[in-house]
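stage 2 :: seqdesign
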C-alpha cells in the first residue's frame, strides 16, 4: 500500500564538481572535470564540460585535445572533502524529516511531509553547504528517482518536480527511455525493447506475467513502483558489510617486491581501519596484484586468499598475513600497476566470543588500535602508522590537481585576509 507521505529524492548536481566550486568560486561557469583515483577517468563533469562532449567515465588522456582547446579545469578527487560535505547535507536534510535514507554520497531519500516546501529544501541545503540540489517527489522511490532525472533535463522545473499520481504521471513517463528507469540496466532494457517496451510509460502498463517471465520478481517490483505501489521502504539502518576492499592503482609502475609490499601493507591498514569503523572483524584476507598493462609489455595477474587464525581487525596481524599472501603470488620481472586487499567473512563485534585465555591479549590489541585511530583522527591521517607501510611512498596514486581538505584538515582551512 502506498504511504500517505510521499518520497523525495534529493540529488546533488554534479556533486564532486560542486564540492570543488564551493571553495573555488572562480570555477563557476567554467568547464570542470574531476578525475578518479590516480587521475585516470572523468567521474564528474560540470554542465559546461558535458556540453563539450566529454563523456562520463572516459580516460582523461584520450580527451586532452578537447581539454586543452577549451580550457577545461581538471581536478583530482578529494574524497575526504566530498564525504564531509555529503555528511553536512545529510544533517541538513534531517531538519525537514526524521525519516532520511542516505542512498549514496550525493543522494538521499526522505519522507516529505505535506507542510514542507521542496523549494525550501533546495534553499536551505544551498545556504548551509553551497551545493545545488534537485528534488524529485512521488509516491514511490522509483517514481521519485524518475522525477529527479526529469528535473535535471528541464530548467522549467527550477530544480523541483512533484509527479502527479496515477495516470497524471504518464506524460512525464512517456518521455523517459526505459533504460533510464531505476533498476533497469542495459541488458534488461534490450529485452524490453525487443518486446516493444521503449519508455517508462510502456513498462508501467506492461503485463505482469510477461515482466515476471522476462525480468523476474525484481523487474515486476519496478513495474509496481511505476504504478504508484510502494514496494521499497526507506533504509535508515544500513546492514553489515559483507566485505571490505581497498584497491588502487600505483602512481608509477612497481618492479620490486619491497615497494609492492609497502603498498599492500598500506591498503591492508586502510581496510582494517574501515573494519573497525564498522565494528567488524574479518576471518579471510585476499590479496591480488596485476600489471594491468593495456597490451604494453608482459602481463601477469594473480591473487591468493588466506584463512586467518582468528577473526580480527588488528592491523599488525592483517599486514603479516597480507605479506604471506603476497609472497605466494609474487613473480619478478613484471611492472605492477595495481594491488588490492579484500577482507571477507566479516562478523559484528557484538557477537564476538573471546577465548578465556586470549581475552586480555585481544582487549589490549583493541585498545591499541582505538588509540591509533583517535590520534590520526585528531591530528591528521597517518600521523602514526606502521613502519611496514613505508615512509616515502613514491608509488602513491597521482593526484596532481587535488583540492585542499578545507573541512577536514586544520592546515587546509581557508584564510581570510
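stage 2 :: out
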Amino acid at each position: 500500500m502506498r504511504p500517505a507521505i510521499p518520497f523525495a529524492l534529493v540529488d546533488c548536481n554534479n556533486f564532486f564538481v560542486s564540492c570543488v566550486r564551493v571553495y573555488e568560486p572562480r570555477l563557476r561557469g567554467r568547464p570542470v572535470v574531476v578525475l578518479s583515483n590516480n587521475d585516470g577517468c572523468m567521474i564528474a563533469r560540470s554542465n559546461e564540460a558535458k556540453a563539450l562532449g566529454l563523456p562520463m567515465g572516459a580516460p582523461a588522456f584520450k580527451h586532452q585535445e578537447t581539454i586543452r582547446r577549451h580550457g577545461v579545469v581538471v581536478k583530482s578527487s578529494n574524497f575526504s572533502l566530498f564525504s564531509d560535505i555529503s555528511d553536512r547535507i545529510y544533517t541538513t536534510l534531517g531538519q525537514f524529516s526524521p525519516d532520511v535514507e542516505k542512498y549514496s554520497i550525493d543522494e538521499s531519500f526522505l519522507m516529505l511531509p505535506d507542510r514542507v516546501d521542496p523549494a525550501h529544501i533546495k534553499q536551505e541545503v544551498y545556504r548551509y553547504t553551497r551545493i545545488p540540489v534537485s528534488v524529485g517527489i512521488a509516491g514511490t522511490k522509483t517514481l521519485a528517482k524518475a522525477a529527479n532525472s526529469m528535473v535535471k533535463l528541464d530548467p522549467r522545473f527550477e530544480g523541483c518536480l512533484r509527479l502527479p499520481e496515477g495516470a497524471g504521471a504518464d506524460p512525464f513517463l512517456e518521455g523517459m527511455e526505459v533504460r533510464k528507469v531505476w533498476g533497469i540496466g542495459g541488458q534488461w532494457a534490450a529485452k524490453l525493447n525487443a518486446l516493444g517496451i521503449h519508455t517508462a510509460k510502456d513498462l508501467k502498463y506492461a503485463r505482469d506475467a510477461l515482466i515476471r517471465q522476462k525480468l523476474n520478481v525484481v523487474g515486476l517490483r519496478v513495474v509496481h513502483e511505476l504504478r504508484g505501489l510502494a514496494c521499497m521502504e526507506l533504509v535508515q539502518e544500513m546492514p553489515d558489510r559483507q566485505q571490505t576492499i581497498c584497491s588502487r592503482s600505483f602512481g608509477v609502475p612497481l618492479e620490486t617486491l619491497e615497494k609492492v609490499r609497502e603498498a599492500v601493507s598500506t591498503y591492508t591498514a586502510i581496510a582494517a581501519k574501515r573494519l573497525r569503523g564498522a565494528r567488524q572483524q574479518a576471518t579471510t584476507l585476499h590479496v591480488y596484484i596485476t600489471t594491468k598493462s593495456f597490451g604494453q609489455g608482459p602481463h601477469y595477474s594473480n591473487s591468493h586468499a588466506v584463512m586467518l587464525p582468528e577473526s580480527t581487525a588488528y592491523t599488525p596481524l592483517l599486514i603479516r598475513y597480507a605479506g604471506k599472501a603476497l609472497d605466494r603470488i609474487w613473480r619478478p620481472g613484471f611492472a605492477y600497476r595495481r594491488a588490492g586487499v579484500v577482507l571477507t567473512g566479516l562478523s559484528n563485534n557484538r557477537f564476538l566470543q573471546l577465548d578465556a585465555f586470549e581475552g586480555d591479549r585481544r582487549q589490549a590489541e583493541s585498545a591499541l588500535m582505538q588509540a591509533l585511530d583517535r590520534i590520526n583522527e585528531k591530528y591528521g591521517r597517518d600521523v602514526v602508522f606502521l613502519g611496514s607501510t613505508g615512509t616515502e611512498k613514491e608509488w602513491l596514486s597521482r593526484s596532481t590537481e587535488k583540492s585542499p581538505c578545507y573541512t577536514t584538515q586544520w592546515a587546509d582551512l581557508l584564510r581570510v585576509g
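stage 3 :: structure notes
- DSSP finds 13 helices and 13 strands in the chain.
- The first helix runs from residue 15 to 23.
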